[in-house]
Amino acid sequence: MMNLEDNGLKTYSKSLSIIVPCYNEEESIPLFYEEIMKQETFFHEKDVEFEFIFVDDGSKDGTVNAVKTLREKDERVHLVSFSRNFGKESAIIAGLEKSIGDFVVFMDADLQDPPAILPEMYEYIGQGYDSVATRRVDRKGEPPIRSFFARRFYGLMRKISKTEIVDGARDYRLMTRQVADAILSMREYNRFSKGIFGWVGYRTKWLEYENVERIAGETKWSFWKLFLYSLDGIMAFSTVPLSIASIFGILFCVLAFVFVIFIFVRALLYGDPVAGWPSMVCIILFIGGVQLLCVGIMGQYMSKMYMEVKDRPKYLVKEEF
Ligand code: UDP
Ligand code: MG
Questions:
Q1: C-alpha 292: how far from chain center
Q2: Ligand 1 atom, smallest distance to 109 CA
Q3: How much is the pTM?
């Protein structure tokens, strides 16, 4: 592969868009840039040029300024700054829409997605894979209760969704333009990237690495936020909860039928059909509860549908370059 040397300016025939969602990451951004630049030589040798797209997700600190500082010394740095916090999913899609690279990679600003394995990921693309995904093999440094629920969530997803959603999968993914465009073609409002990546398919290579703790700042995920996110994931990629109502319905019909025969026969044989109102109250409460649960589940799906139908923009841009 040849680099064109022209007035000291090198041009490369391929480009890699590095998309970095940032929410209050002013401390991490310079450190991230420093680390990723260590991989530059490898990519230049492969005739690949970097393009950086930092997506500021409505940060309240100096994130935008940190990106501007980088831009002063590096023309390849780009920014999309949102009007408010829209969430990481929106940041990912905004970055994708702005990117023009032949390859695209999503990386967190906090260096939890080690840049050191990027060359290895790129090698797999060269070997014919369309996308290279990463998963962490342990959950070191994470509260045990969080790990416990995360495991339950992935276990449940495996059972109720046809889309492959891998335990411990990170959003750290390198992909070809074709895969990036496939992801862009999914226009849904309620986005759950882990599911979307699985849904689009293509040949994916999985790399594993040990969990790295974030370099600066703190995680934006509270337990509650993660819990709601997991519900979003379930609703976006499974309709099994919707059939719970039918299952309970059938079950209760069968039970009711058996009971009717039982009570009828008992009354014929022994008389005294009136007995056991406490048990009746329990049954009414139980069935009432199940009905509310089922209506609630339908309500959840309806609220998702409501948001899809409104088709609001996934993010609003305040500033970009
Ligand atoms: N992030 C974002 N918007 C948000 C929350 C997070 O763009 O509302 C970014 C954040 O700046 C980081 C990445 O998403 O680059 C992952 O976030 P974080 O490190 O908080 O998540 P964790 O690694 O703990 O799962
Ligand atoms: Mg992180």
A1: 29
A2: 15
A3: 0.77
